[in-house]
Queue: 3 jobs
Job 1
Amino acid sequence: MSEFVKQSLGNLIQELKNEPTKAQVSFEATSVLQEGVQVNSTVRQFEFKFDEPELLGGKDDAPNPVEYVLASLGACQAIVYRALASLKGIQLDSVTVKTKGDLDLRGFLGLDSNIRPGFQKIVFETIVTSNESAEKLERLAQQVDAICPVLDIVSKPIPVEGTLTIQRTPELVG
């Protein structure tokens, strides 16, 4: 599998070196509120669900958005480890990323405007099983952290713009 990753990424890197304009891509998601606080989201051909624990008014049928953020960070780190290790010929037997985020509900619930509604802090631990040297794996870890898109998103401010579109419910014709 690592050879497939190496070949795929190698081909992409060469293509982008030849045609840098192809490097600009967009990703999209659509999220629709369902019953209670449940949400169905669609990304490409994939659908997944969100919910909240009962403490926050949900039915606890699915992870909540901040849990998906943590899982996305862990998944992105693991993917970037595989990608870079494949390109550099570094053998990885396994990669596990454990993430934890601390959140103060007073911010989310609007009880204290001095407390941010999102995570106060995120920490992660990457557990790599490999017979490569510690120095090589530490260098790899630094490179992973430098280019992991989700780590970049959650650790550095980026511009975010939102708009509101209001649609009126059609009146029932009687």
Job 2
Amino acid sequence: MKLTGKKMKSMFLCMVLAVAMAFTVAGCGSKTESIETAEAQEIVLGDGSVKITVIVVDADGNETNFVVSTDKETVGDALLELNLIEGDDSEYGLYVKTVNGITADYDTDGTYWAFYVNGEYASTGVDSTPVNEGDTYEFKVEK
């Protein structure tokens, strides 16, 4: 079989196309892995002996997970010490306005930080909720 110039060019282009497709497929796989790895990462804060999980959900539904190690008695004290929350003192306790640098201001836009303990709406304020090993505490922007 004799290869003409056109056939050689055609074979060469097919080989280049096949190599390019292989690189594209390999590149897509690595992107998926890096996204999965990023989603699985948690931010570790503190150096105490009790570990808790703190989940922050912003107004757009974006979630940030923290593993907090603390020796503080209350969730409020632990998170204030790490500058994860900020707020104003009120007659009912600490009114959390900022979590992880995100402010929810009811007076401005009708949003506030809702506080949950192990998936249930908290019956106590953040500054009177005790730290319990392994518990999950969640702050969600709500209207």
Job 3
Amino acid sequence: MKKSITILSLIAGMFFMTAFNPIKDDIYTVDVERSTIEWTAKKVGGGHAGTVKIADGKLVYSGKALKSGNFQMNMSSITSDNARVTTHLKSDDFFSAEKNPMSKFEITKVTAAGADRVNITGNLSIKGFTHSITFPATVKQQKGVVVAVASGIRVDRTKYDIKFRSKTFFGDIGDKAIDDEFELSINLTAKKS
């Protein structure tokens, strides 16, 4: 009986310590100079690749686990492997960079998937349209720095009103078609605030 009371007292004590001393969230600010976002898009007979700069962002840790975060992309910074394509990407046919200068990703859920591996779900906002996407990532935290890497993130551009040369909307476009999906590779480095 005494042993049961002692165990219950320990459990109650741990509960009260946790309730009144919750784990404090640690905020890591994205280092925009050391972080990159690369994109690739395919079309019949080829494709293009480029980058877009991160404007700002943060990752929030609770204890040893990624809890939440967000980052913004400066759409006027988008580049491609072709100067004409770069200009076109900023136009209303694609990202309308002048009217919609920022795109945003906000983490809504993080699920553990093994050592340093997680599945991230979040809301991607482009041109005023927001849709949920999920992708695997590797996230490492050490010595006041977090590095988060994800590649092959598939985004359906038509969900964000980017329909230029889409077979879904222009079935008779033939070999001028551009794939509806493009891919992002994200490499974030964030420092403890």
